[in-house]
Amino acid sequence: MRQSLLFTKARKEAPAGEVAFNAQLLIRAGYIYKEMAGVYAYLPLGIRVLEKIKQIVREEMDAIGGQELIMTALQRKELWEQTDRWDDEKVDVWFKSSLKNGVELGFGWSHEEPITEMMKHYISSYKDLPIYVYQFQTKLRNELRAKSGIMRGREFVMKDMYSYATDEQQHEAFYNGVIEAYMRVFERVGLKDDTFVTFASGGAFTQFSHEFQTITDAGEDMIYINREKNIAINEEVLNEETLNDLGVTKEELTLVKTAEVGNIFNFGTLKTEQLGLNYVDNTGKNIPVHLGSYGIGITRLMGVIVERFADEKGIVWPESVAPFQVHLISLCREENDKKQAEEIYQKLKASGVEVLFDDREDVSAGQKFAESDLLGIPKRYIVSQKTLENETLEMKLRTKDEAEFVKIENIYV
Ligand code: ATP
Ligand code: MG
């Protein structure tokens, strides 16, 4: 991609009123555009990061047998009435509307009900189970506060997965597999050391649900952790009983601020009984299906990555989610040098490297470097008359201060 053609421009200042560090940086660098509080558009650079994160999640969900689909954003009121989750007293984040004929409908803030209803068309026998389905979808939630940038949107991308199993045993095997798959996701985006599988409230038939909490000052949750024992407990469930069950004392635990990047939940047969999703077992008996629900906040994860790795100069993307692997910056002025810079860009691209090529001619070297720091691409190559004379490029990693010269012939992979 040529920076001269990119319609977004880096900015020195974030818009007044944007209080979240992640959104300030992402807006300044041109990854996102703020439409209103908690509502952000994803621009050409931002989409590349989002798609990288989604692809990592997709690979890990596919690896444990997930099948991808997309449910609808418009939802029927009756389904949510059957499970007593239509009432605003019960679910306080609903956006609702109605058809011209007056029929009320809801905008999807979650999808357990419609997807479980849909499964009645595909599940009838034990032979149909287990089924694991997932989607990436824009959820709409009328959040009371939206002050955390893309970490708490009123419109945000979630990966949600649902498991349908014959019994608790089949359910649990998958549930435990999801915990491992989620940790592989967080490892691949560079957050493993700061992300904890955390005991939290909820679970229809279980004592706890599990949250995936990442340490960051930008988070909205507080959890107690013990790194050696690898135990994490959300403060909302910290009491004598929990401590006894988990075999720790409060003195062994440290309180840290975190953001919930994922959440997994065992619904047991609660919802399937309410909605009437049953299967026939091998003796001919009618039995309600076991439901599990598993979320990862894709856009929140992007915000957490920004918060976690950024420095005073700007964003620092881990390789795995960076919009480009290489930022090629040309300082060439002479026609012949410009031609050589162009050649390097073409050859890098042809060798499979994702390159952002700063081919702009009316921008100073200083400004190019400052914007490059803000953008946070892992590796920078500078090409100039001076480097070309030695058949080299200047190479600098975003995470390092020192630069080095590399032979041009050696940069192609
Ligand atoms: P929170 O307690 O932060 O409001 P939640 O319990 O409502 O989260 P879930 O309904 O379980 O979250 O959604 C699954 C995942 O979606 C969460 O773990 C989080 O990563 C993400 N998420 C939830 N709400 C938002 C939001 N408003 N903006 C961005 N991501 C969100
Ligand atoms: Mg919430």
From TrEMBL:
<dbReference type="InterPro" id="IPR050062">
    <property type="entry name" value="Pro-tRNA_synthetase"/>
</dbReference>
<dbReference type="InterPro" id="IPR036621">
    <property type="entry name" value="Anticodon-bd_dom_sf"/>
</dbReference>
<dbReference type="GO" id="GO:0004827">
    <property type="term" value="F:proline-tRNA ligase activity"/>
</dbReference>
<keyword id="KW-0648">Protein biosynthesis</keyword>
<dbReference type="Pfam" id="PF00587">
    <property type="entry name" value="tRNA-synt_2b"/>
</dbReference>
<keyword id="KW-0067">ATP-binding</keyword>
<dbReference type="InterPro" id="IPR002316">
    <property type="entry name" value="Pro-tRNA-ligase_IIa"/>
</dbReference>
<protein>
    <recommendedName>
        <fullName>Proline--tRNA ligase</fullName>
        <ecNumber>6.1.1.15</ecNumber>
    </recommendedName>
</protein>
<feature type="domain" description="Aminoacyl-transfer RNA synthetases class-II family profile">
    <location>
        <begin position="38"/>
        <end position="318"/>
    </location>
</feature>
<dbReference type="InterPro" id="IPR004154">
    <property type="entry name" value="Anticodon-bd"/>
</dbReference>
<dbReference type="Pfam" id="PF03129">
    <property type="entry name" value="HGTP_anticodon"/>
</dbReference>
<dbReference type="GO" id="GO:0005829">
    <property type="term" value="C:cytosol"/>
</dbReference>
<dbReference type="InterPro" id="IPR045864">
    <property type="entry name" value="aa-tRNA-synth_II/BPL/LPL"/>
</dbReference>
<dbReference type="InterPro" id="IPR006195">
    <property type="entry name" value="aa-tRNA-synth_II"/>
</dbReference>
<dbReference type="GO" id="GO:0005524">
    <property type="term" value="F:ATP binding"/>
</dbReference>
<dbReference type="InterPro" id="IPR002314">
    <property type="entry name" value="aa-tRNA-synt_IIb"/>
</dbReference>
<dbReference type="GO" id="GO:0006433">
    <property type="term" value="P:prolyl-tRNA aminoacylation"/>
</dbReference>
<keyword id="KW-0547">Nucleotide-binding</keyword>
<keyword id="KW-0030">Aminoacyl-tRNA synthetase</keyword>
<keyword id="KW-0436">Ligase</keyword>
